């Protein structure tokens, strides 16, 4: 795949991720699209000037995946302190191991002797 095709594919993936994640929030959507457009047009990234084009395309693909799977939007309800989280079908959930099933860490120390140590007066 050429660099141009890869860039277009990553750009479209990022737009789809933003549309899915920020649906209904015009202000955030406009800011995200403007930032994306400016970064795509720039010869060098303002945020990552050391990255070449291929690295920037790879980063954009990773950002699109992260937005799709890990970011949920909180929408303020009519109550003062209530927010409704907008999960969608691609949001990853329940991936953490419950605390009750985690293995307990055990520390192993050598045998204790009476021959002294760091604080002995021997």
UniProtKB/TrEMBL annotation:
**Which GO-annotated molecular functions does the record name?**
protein folding chaperone
Keyword list (alphabetical) reads: Chaperone, Mitochondrion, Transit peptide
Listed GO CC annotations: mitochondrial matrix
Q: Which GO terms describe its biological process?
A: mitochondrial respiratory chain complex III assembly
Top-level lineage group: Eukaryota
Q: Where are the transmembrane segments?
A: none
Tell me which InterPro entries the record gives. Complex1_LYR_LYRM7 (IPR045298), MZM1/LYRM7 (IPR050435)
Cell compartment(s), UniProt: Mitochondrion matrix
Point out the coiled-coil segments of this chain: none
Q: Does the keyword Chaperone apply?
A: yes
**Which PANTHER family does the entry link to?**
COMPLEX III ASSEMBLY FACTOR LYRM7 (PTHR46749)
Question: Which protein family is named in the record?
Answer: Belongs to the complex I LYR family. MZM1 subfamily.
Cite the record's note on assembly: Interacts with RIP1.
Cited function:
Assembly factor required for Rieske Fe-S protein RIP1 incorporation into the cytochrome b-c1 (CIII) complex. Functions as a chaperone, binding to this subunit within the mitochondrial matrix and stabilizing it prior to its translocation and insertion into the late CIII dimeric intermediate within the mitochondrial inner membrane. Modulates the mitochondrial matrix zinc pool.
Q: What is this protein called?
A: Mitochondrial zinc maintenance protein 1, mitochondrial
What species was this sequence derived from? Dekkera bruxellensis (Brettanomyces custersii)
Name of the gene: MZM1
